[in-house]
Amino acid sequence: MSPFKLAWSELRRFRGHPIRVAALIAIILIPLVYGGLYLWFAWDPYGKLDQMPVAVVNEDTGATIAQDGETTDVNGGRQLVDQLGSDRIFDWKFVDAGTAAQGLEDGDYYMVITVPQDFSTNLASLAGDSPEQATVEFDLNDANGYVAGIMASTAEAELRNQINTAVYVTFAKTIFGDLTELGAGLTEASEGAGTLSDGIGSAETGASDLESGLTDLESGAQEVATGAGQVSDGVDEVVNVAQPVVDGLSTNWSQIQSGSAAGSNLVNDAATDLQSVYDALCTGDAASTDACATLQAHIDEAGQVNTEVQQANGAVQSTTAASLATASSDLSDLKTGAADVATGAGQVATGAAGAELGASDLQDGLGDLQDGADNLASSLSSAAAEVPTENPADDAESAEAYGSPVQVKETNLNPAETYGRGLAPFFIAVALWVFGLIAYLLLRPANPRAVAGPLRSPTVALGGWLPGALLGLLSALLLYVVLDIGLGLDPKYVLGTIGLCLLVILTFSAMTHLLKLAFGSAGSLLIVVLLMLQLTSAGGLYPVETTPQFFQALHQVLPMSYAVDGLRVTLSGGYSPHLVRAVIVLVVYLVVSLVLATVVVAMRRKWKMDSLNLPLKL
C-alpha cells in the first residue's frame, strides 16, 4: 500500500457525518481565521488616526508687544488652534479644560493638548531681552489603551510641526510687524528692481552702440593718422627743397629785379625794331608779299612775347625781398604744422582705441549690473510670495514650510505600504504553524493498523503525514487568496509567495506531525511551547537585535524566523539570498522531520507496556 492510500484511508474516517466533515473544513479554515482576522483588524490603523478623538484646550490669554511706538496684539493660541484645524491629524475636539479632563478620564479622548495661559506672553518675549520658551502640554491616559497612547506619540512629530508652524507665524508677526505690509513692500521693491533692470538694459544697448561708434572712430582716426604722417613727410621733402631756393632769391632779389627790367626793355626794343623794319620793307609796291607775310607773323609773335615779358617783369618788380623772407618763414611753419597734425592724429587714434576699450568694459559692467538687478527683482518677488499670511489656516502649506523649514526625505527600498502588510509575513507563518497544532488534534499521526502491519516504516510515516499536508496546502492557498483579494495583500512576487506558503505549511505540518507522532498527547504541549518560542524569536514584531540574547540565539535555529524572512522578500521585495536561505532551511527541516518520523515509526513497532497504556492522554 502506498503512502497516498494510507492518507486517503485516514481522511475517509471523517465521512458519513456532517460534524466530521465540518471538522475537516474547520482545520482548513484555522489559518484563515487566525491570520486573516488579525491582519484584517490591524491592516492600517495609522491610516485612520483622524478618527481618534483628541481634545484641544486653548487657555491662552494673548499678549501685546510695543514696537516703534505701536502696539501689536499677539495671540499664539488662536494661531495654533487654526493651524490644527487646517490639518486633520486626529479627530480634534476643541473643548474647555474641564470637559477635556473628564473626557480623558472617562476614555472619551485619547489625548488632551493644552495651550497654557502664558503661551502668547512667552512668544512675545522673543522680541525682548529676556526670551522665554513657550510650552504646550500633552496629557495621555494609558488606562484608555497603552497602544493608543503609542499611536498618539507616533504622530507627535507631525503635531510638533503644526505647533511650530503656528508659532513661526506668530513670532514673525511679533518681530516684523504687519506681514501684509512687509509683503507689499517687498512686492514694490521687486517692481522697482525690475524697472531698474529695464533701464540698465537700455543703457547697455547705448553702451553697445557707443562701442561700435568708437570702433569706427578708432579705425578712421588710424587712417587719418597714417595719411597725416605721409603728408608731413611730403611737406618736409618739399620745404627742404623750396626753402633754400626762396632764401637764395631773397638774398639776390635786387639784382634779379634789375636783370628782369633790362631783359624786359630789350624785348620791347626788339619788338619795336621789327615793326620799323616791316614798315620800311613792306609799304612799297616792290615789297614781297610772302616775305612780308612771314615778317608780320614774326612781328605778331614778338608782340605776344613782349606782352608776357612785360607782365613777368611787372610781377618781379612788384615782389619785394621782404615778401620772399616771409614766404621762407611760412614754409618753416608749414613743415612744423604738418608734423603737429600727424602727431595729433596719432594721439586721436590712440585715444579712440582707449575709449573703445572703456566702452566695452562699460557694456560688460552694465550687463553684470542688469543680471544683478534681475536677480534682485526675482529674489524680492520670491520673498514677497513667501511672506506668510497672518492666519495660517489661509495658507496652511506655506505656513508649514515656514514652521518646519527642513524636510526629511525618506527613501524605502522595499516599502510595505501599510501596517498590516508589514506584519503579514509574521502572522501568515504563525497561522500556518497553528494549523499543525489543530490538525493533529483530530488527525492520527500514524495508522495503528499500518504500524502493526507489514508496510515499511517510510510508507507508514508518509501516510500519517500526508493527510495533514494535503489539508494544509488547501488551507495555505485559501489564506493567500482571501488576503490578496479581501485585504489587498498584492505581493511583489505572487508565485514566489504562494510557493513559499506551500513550502512553509509542508514543513510546519511535518514538524508538528513528528512531535505528535513521537510524544503523543505531550507532543501537543511541545507544539504550543515551540509556538511561544518562535513568536518571541522570529523577529516578526520587533527587530531581533532589540530582544534578549536568549531569543536572538533561538532566532538563528528555529524555522519560523526563516519563514518570516522569506515572506518579507516575496511580499515586499528585498535581498534575494535571504529567500534562498529560507527555502534551503525549510527544506532541511522538512526532510529531517520526515526522516525522524520514519525512525519513530520504526521504533514504535517494538511494543512496550507504554505503547498499550499511554502515560498521558488528551
UniProtKB/TrEMBL annotation:
Keyword Protein transport: no
Gene Ontology MF annotations: ABC-type transporter activity
Bilayer disposition of the protein: Multi-pass membrane protein
Keyword list, A-Z: Membrane, Transmembrane, Transmembrane helix
Domain ABC-2 type transporter transmembrane: 24-166, 376-598
TM annotation in the entry: 21-43, 423-443, 464-487, 493-515, 522-542, 579-603
InterPro entries xrefs: ABC2_TM (IPR013525), Phage_infect_YhgE_C (IPR017501), Phage_infect_YhgE_N (IPR017500), T7SS_ABC-Transporter (IPR051328)
Principal subcellular localization: membrane
Region entry Disordered, spans: 380-406
Cell compartments where the protein resides: Membrane
Domain of life, source organism: Bacteria
GO annotation, cellular component aspect: membrane
Protein name in UniProt: YhgE/Pip domain-containing protein
Organism: Glycomyces buryatensis
